[in-house]
Amino acid sequence: MKPSVTPESGARGPARWLETPWIYTVWCIVAAFGTYACMYGFRKPFTAGSYVDAESGLNMKAWLVTAQVIGYALSKFIGIKVIAEMTRTRRALVLLGLIAASELSLLLFALTPSPYNTAWLFCNGLSLGLVFGLVLGFVEGRRMTELFVAGLCASFILADGFTKSVGAALLAAGVPENWMPFTAGLVFLLPLVVFVWMLRQIPPPSDADVAARSARAPMTGAERLAMVRRHGVRLFGLVLAYMLITVLRSVRADFAPEIWSGLGLGKQPAIFTQSELWVTLGVVVLNGAVVLIRDNRRAFFASMALSAAGLVAAVGALLALRFGAISPFAFMVLLGVGMYVPYVAVHTTVFERLIALTRERGNIGFLMYIADSVGYIGYAVVMVSRSAFPAKEDFLGFFLNLATTLMVGALVAVAVSWALYARRAPQAQG
Predict the structure, then answer these.
(1) What is the topology classification, in CATH, of domain 16-423?
(2) CA-CA distances (angstroms) from residue 176 to 90, 179, 318?
(3) Each residue of 213-233: pLDDT tens digit?
(4) Cβ neighbourhood burial of 424 (10 Å; 0-12, 13-18, 19+)
């Protein structure tokens, strides 16, 4: 595997052991998965707590989730510029700096009395929102990108449940609720440094990668605007669907204890991880398999079809639960698979193959951060309107109605975008 040296990639060649193809493949998957999974250890464990203010009796959890989501959403808007312009040589250092800032925020969260500590979760979200784009930059634009990014995306499915289990275990071990998020971050700190080191060893895309998928480069403001003008209308349906799915996956993730309690399985901390293991397996296999399709146009439309099929499965799971035709555990797994298949397809294939097909100068980080910024703004609006959220004992019914509305809306949006692209298929630029 001969690396392609470009001005932004630097002259550092690959580590010798990465010249073996199967080692290179496994290394990239493990490095991407591990880094982002560890990032979740700084973001999600706090949601395992209840956060009832001792003096007022006020339940602070929704406020804390909202503060973090707003910070995360703002970071996605910042990332439209920062990630699009990021060079290879700066990625690892910036990534570690952001993790350090997020852990400092969790320390200050523990030291600051409630409700004033809410501001530190905003800072935590602001620090972590850029991490995905930094990791993605190490593995995009390669013939195996779908497989690498499927591994990366598996982390935010599996790690979401696993880090909640870690948070619940720390609480069960007697760690004070306000100190639990910081303590969980310490658990994941050393592994994260190791995985970032692994990312740094990944060589730039080879000449064969560039020929198959096009070169990826930092983008100027003019280049970003030109890409949006060329694809904005046809991308609208995809971005809308992504926003609706983001809202649902975020509610499902941040209020998992309430949902599982409503399903009658709330007293099993390990169930967060058990369900997401099956979701991860299904999503990784389905999305990763698209790497077998070499033709960029066929792969692009196959990912659209896969996204629609996932949404149909999610709607089917919701109907099956209402009619008592499926167990609660199977429902959460099937809903998770149906919801995450299109969500991950956008990360692994849709934008990757769109750039490969059109030979646009740019990177998928730019397109991802447009979608992410809209998606998290949608969730932030939902959380700011949390007064509409029912009490814990009524949460399941609210969730089922919300999920049905969002999944049907996302299915319609994907169908419209698919039709627009099929009518006017993207062409190579230049």
Answers:
(1) Growth Hormone; Chain: A; (1.20.1250)
(2) 37, 5, 37
(3) 888 888 988 889 888 888 877
(4) exposed
